[in-house]
Amino acid sequence: MIHFDNVSKRYAGSHDALKRINLRLPKGQMAFLTGHSGAGKSTLLKLIAIIERPTRGRIYLDGVNLNNIRNRHIPYIRRNIGIIFQNHHLLYDRPVFDNVAMPLVIQGYRHKEIQKRVRAALNQVGLLHKEKAAPITLSGGEQQRVGIARAIVHKPALLLADEPTGNLDPDLSRDVMQLFARFNQVGTSVLIASHNLDLIRAMGTPVISLQDGKVSNNTLPYYHPA
Amino acid sequence: MAWLLNHLQVTLASLGRLYRQPIATLMTVAVIAIALTLPISLYVAINNLSQLSAHWDSSTQISAFLYPQVNKQQAQILVGRLRLNKDIRSVKLIDKQTGLAEFKKTSGFNDALKFLNTNPLPIVLVIQPDIDSAQPLKTTQLLQHLQNENQIELAQLDIQWVKRLFALLEIANRSIWVLGSLLALAVLLIVGNTIRLDIQNRRAEIEVAKLIGASDAFIRRPFLYAGLWYGLLGGLLAGLLSSFSFMLIAPPVHRLTLLYHSSFQLSGPSLSQILILISISCLLGLGGSWLAVSRHLKDIEPV
Fold first, then answer.
1. What's the CA gap between B51 and A176, in Å, rounded?
2. What is the set of domains in chain B, with CATH numbers?
């Protein structure tokens, strides 16, 4: 699903955020990305969503070389990815339903289909009864679940999550991680950046560890170190 | 079909957005309307004046004063000869008695004229040229030709002041285009600035939309439609304002023209003029928002 081939990223006037990363996440695989803050977790996720471009090396997403994707075609790449952020990125001027419906509206789905899919997504995260609520009235955990519903409503092949449990207590964090595991069971590839090591160990999922912009440890099944 | 439906939805949604901020919307629309009312009103006013002067121009006539010693018989022979000229539509002979009677009636010198033993007025020929007003040179030639007739002492044309009026109108017309262009530019910038603020206010929404794969066209669309709405509403209001202004001005103008024994009626902007105004306004709104969108949407990238 994801293939990093000798990828480096240097921010202008700064240090190398990522150094010669080689990495392969097979289709349908779930994995954690760990490391201290500043180790390059967020940068790696941003490169996959083409929020940033690599300084060197190639990234393949589902066989497509992202270096060859022009800016104006980025939206079509992102439509195959569901992205979940630590701070939700919900829009507070509209109800939960409209927030979750956004990816479908963007892709021009019909009204009936949108209703069906949004309800299904909200049902999966256990918030069907909150569809008319304003996001600001929801708890942190509920807001995060709305964000997850929005990320999965258009059934992307890949889910990326950046510290999805960063603001949640341990119980809620476990629920959220279980949710990701369930999406993975129906075939979605999942990559989660997290430093919640206890939880990661409890999940028994492969882990990619980053240290100073390099892969320091990788327990993915098909990993061949360069 | 789905594409059309989406456009319709976005159109209504952006109108709804304007409706939810009535004061801000009204202010922007009013500024656009005022900026457009000024040139359209001046344009229509100048149009009215040109119509009035066109009427005068077609009634331009040459007065030919004959030498005092020319008698009526000789004058009639001259009239017959002049009527053969293809540049002359009609010739009217005013003999000395008629001229005196008319002069007495209109000049108010009735009492003074009683002291004169003889009639001092010459025979006058009122000549209606059959010349297109767009060819002032030919009129001058005709005038020269008449002047060369040895029975005509003086041939006078009232075209000089009409020419001057036309020149003035031409200047006014040109000025309106300059003024209109400047104000159109102002409308473009007003809409552009309004949309720019709108983009800044919806930064979060744009970021999220870009992150979940919205195409540039999708993000652009609501702003472009907002610009179109501003233009449409501003144009409509400008049409109303200018029509209303003319309705206010028309009665005193009518009273003035009655004093000049003219049946001239001030006419406000016509329906087609208003429609053109609204179309231009829509284009300006769309253009202004396009400027803002192409300038500022690029700056917003998810981080």
1. 79
2. 2-56+163-296 (no CATH), 61-158 (3.30.70.3040)
Q: Which helix (H) or strand (E) is B92 found in, with range?
A: strand B88-94
Q: What's the pTM?
A: 0.73
The three-state secondary structure class of A39 is coil
Inter-chain CB proximity B215 and A108 less than 8 Å? no
Residue B11: pLDDT over 80: yes
Nearest CB to B209; choose among A83, A106, A110: A106
Start-end of H helices in chain A: 41-48, 74-78, 96-106, 111-124, 140-152, 170-185, 197-203
Distance between CA atoms of residues B230 and B286, nearest Å: 9
Q: CA-CA distance, A157 to A28, in Å (whole number)?
A: 8
Alpha carbons B71 and B97: distance in angstroms, whole number: 12
B251 phi/psi in degrees, rounded to 5: -60, -50
What 8-state DSSP symbol labels residue B108? Answer: S
**What is the predicted pLDDT for the residue at B53?**
66
Residue B151 pLDDT greater than 90, yes or no: no
Q: Give the mutation candidate from A107, A155, A162 for the B interface (greatest B CB count, under 10 A).
A: A107
With a pLDDT cut of 90, the percent of chain B lying above it is 32
3-state secondary structure of B91: strand
Minimal Cβ distance to A83: which of B2, B211, B301:
B211
Query: B93 forms bridges with which residues in the sheet?
Result: B125
Closest CA to A97 of A124, A141, A129, A75: A129
B137 vs B132: CA distance, rounded Å: 10
pLDDT tens, residue by residue, B240-266: 999 999 999 888 888 887 877 666 778
Per-residue pLDDT averaged across A87-111, rounded?
Answer: 89
Residues of B with CB under 8 A from a CB of A: 2-3, 6, 204-205, 207-216, 218, 301-303
| CA of A202 vs chain B CAs: smallest distance (Å) | 31
ipTM: 0.85
CB atoms within 10 A of CB B169: 15
A96 Cβ partners below 8 Å, 6+ apart? A122, A127, A130, A131, A132, A133, A134, A135, A138, A146
- Mean pLDDT, rounded, for A154-173: 86
The closest alpha carbon to B244, from B40, B63, B31, B7, belongs to: B40
Model confidence pLDDT, tens digit, residues B186-243: 999 999 999 999 999 888 889 989 988 888 888 999 999 999 999 999 999 999 999 9
pLDDT digits (tens, 9 = 90+) for B200-212: 988 888 998 998 8
